[in-house]
Amino acid sequence: MTIEGRRAGERAPRRIVVARLLMLWVFVVLLYFLWEAAKYRGLYALLSEWQFEQFGHYLPILTFSFLVLLFGSPAALLLRARRRADSPRLSNRTGYEAAVMTGSNFRRILFGFSGGLAAAALVTLLWTLTLPRMAVPKRVITVGAADSIAPDRGPAILRGRIVYTRTAAFAQDLWLTRRGVRFAPVLAVAGRESPRTIRYFVELLPTDAPDPRVDGAILARSGVLMRNALPGSIVRLYRYAGYDVNTPYYVLYASTRTMRWPYYVTAAQLATAAVILLLAALFQHGHLRRVTREEDVVG
Questions:
Q1: Contact 185/257 with Cβ under 8 angstroms?
Q2: What is the DSSP letter of 2?
Q3: Cys-Cys link to 155, which of 120, 137, 194, 273 (CB 3.0-4.6 A)?
């Protein structure tokens, strides 16, 4: 073995460690922005709210993909630069084998992460089957009454004062599909709670229109009650407006599709992350084939 070959062999473990750290960084970036998207926090929330201000809606998948590529691409580019620096175009067989081994491991990890995220997207879609369905309500929840402290989820009739003048609208674009929905707070019937404290929300029907004559009137609505199930931007909007949104809070959904929509968005984001990693894995596979072919020609 030549001196150069010996040095390349000694550097191989260090290159493998650096490559794995860079791979780990990309995976951490994916998980972190999935968490931000699920909780509607951090940069994801800031970019989403900027889109709301500029366009009146936001693109969750594009926002998520942009952040992942922005913070994950430097590690990927650095890893590719190291691959090129270690590309075995010399007669250094040890360096060549170390580079191919590292590249193959990287490819397997990318395929593994991609498969794991795809499986998570599928599980998220299947989880929607466990959500409650529309049915004839068997219980009535009166806002402000003693039995409204911690109700179970499921079909229910919610009775309270719907404040139409405090309606919040929410719109998302998911690829070619756009979904808009409106929510309004429901206050206590007898005014036992502060008008700035909100524990219940209701999804408004498309036919609902703000009407000062019925604003604050005692009404009863039927639907499916869910716990802590508002879009994150809506919760932030009410808190920015000076309202105290209790934890936990409850949302009466008039449509099961609206109730399941956040899960569809999460599944789409997981699938997008899986596709990004799959494309990276295929790119790495093609790169390894080219390197192997070049080595065969040189050899």
A1: no
A2: -
A3: 137
- Exposed e or buried b for every residue in 51-89, given b needs 16+ CB within 10 A? bbeeeebbbbbebbbebbeebbeebbeebeebbeebbbe
Overall pTM > 0.70: no
pLDDT tens digits, one per residue of 97-120: 666 666 677 777 778 878 888 888
Residues 6+ apart with CB under 8 A from 117: 30, 270, 271, 273, 274, 277
What is the tens place of the pLDDT at every residue in 135-158? 888 888 888 776 655 577 889 999
Query: Quick one: residue 144, left, alpha or beta (phi over 0 = left, psi -120 to 50 = alpha)?
Result: left
DSSP states along 148-179? GSSPPSEEEEEEEEE-GGG-EEEEEEETTEEE
